[in-house]
Design a protein that fits this description.
Layout: H1 21-28, E1 38-39, H2 45-55, E2 67-73, H3 74-88, H4 94-105, E3 109-116, H5 124-144, E4 148-152, H6 160-166, E5 172-183
Antiparallel strand pairs: 1-5, 2-3, 3-5, 4-5
Helix pairs in contact: 2-5, 3-4, 3-6
């Protein structure tokens, strides 16, 4: 499923900035896989370790690592999903809440990215943005490794009981669930923003 993931550079290694047409081609066609199309197999222990290492290589002002990972798979993931399912009927729209759970139950592997705020000189907003960058980096890395991947924050990311089940602590937030597996359908291109319409040049 995956190609060889390079070893991590050593501290102080020179990392030159070089053009990479292959990366540009990859980014130009990046597309999330539908969580509903993800099935086994998913990443194994070694592949997950590589994936998390790559995901953690994001901008992080202050070198705080203001995020952590929770891996859900196998029987433990099933148990988590069962506890979350028990909360669905109490949501404002139970039918919609229950339907959303299929995105949780079908993929074989999930990684919850937990954003944590560490009080100090670095603004909270920058720390939360770093956690979002981790989610995006993991999405890219998973696709580059050949896995189908989808970044989702559904109602159970915000329900206090759901957060408690996941082990989210005070001051933490769920930046997202990254659902991972083998895509049974190739995703299709969707409508994209008109970048020119949302871009301006500051002239003073």
């Amino acid at each position: 499923m995956t190609g060889s993931v390079p070893l991590a550079p050593q501290f102080g290694d020179i990392l030159p900035i070089e053009p990479s047409p292959a990366v540009l081609d990859f980014l130009a066609k990046r597309r999330s896989a539908s969580a509903m199309t993800l099935t086994a197999p998913g990443p194994d222990d070694a592949q997950l370790a590589d994936l998390l290492r790559l995901a953690a290589r994001v901008p992080d002002h202050g070198k705080l690592s203001p995020w952590r990972f929770v891996i859900l798979r196998g029987a433990a993931k099933d148990a988590f999903a069962a506890k979350i399912t028990a909360l669905a009927d109490s949501q404002a729209n139970p039918a919609k809440a229950n339907a959303a759970l299929r995105k949780l139950t079908r993929p074989p592997v999930a990684v919850a990215v937990i954003s944590r705020y560490l009080p100090g000189e670095i603004p909270e907003w920058e720390q939360r943005l770093s956690a979002a960058a981790v989610c995006q980096q993991m999405l890219l890395a998973a696709a580059a490794m050949g896995w189908g991947a989808n970044w989702i924050t559904d109602w159970y990311s915000y329900d206090p009981r759901g957060r408690e089940i996941l082990g989210v602590e005070a001051g933490e937030q769920v930046a997202g669930f990254l659902y991972l597996g083998t895509a049974t359908e190739a995703p299709q291109e969707r409508a994209r923003p008109d970048v020119a319409a949302i871009t301006s040049v500051w002239t003073g």
